[in-house]
Specification:
There is one protein chain. This protein is mostly helical. Helices cover about 70% and strands about 0% of the residues. The chain is elongated, with a radius of gyration of 18 Å.
Length: about 150
Amino acid sequence: MSDHEDEQTLLEKVEKLQTSLVGYATQDGGGLEIADFMRLREEIINDGRVKGKIPDIIRKYRDGRQFWQFIKHKFPTYRERREYIWQEIRPLIDYLEAQDRSPGVQLITEALVNFDSQHVHNAWQKALDRRVRDPEGAITAARMLLRSKTNS
């Protein structure tokens, strides 16, 4: 099994990075190697589905060493550090879990990734963002996206 097989979805990647941050913060050796941490962080940051939802502790600290320099002075106990990390990343995980529960979202998102067009990704994200506050608008946006792809 490769090192990356346990991080197939964006949610799994975020959870793995969270576990690594806890490892760095508690000095338990559970932190990822620097290169793996940086790769995982970059994949999360560059994923358009979570643009604007990435917590500061992922955006600001490029590797475990930088994070350690921050966290060791912010909280004196391991418990406080763990709770802080979980609290900071929880909104992103909640968002991704909600995406996974919505019917068809994962299947359609994966299909659209193959088009590799920023326009397609932006239009799909617009539809997803409207699901809760404007369901009819979300359906219209998704239909327009599908029509534009079938007419291409």
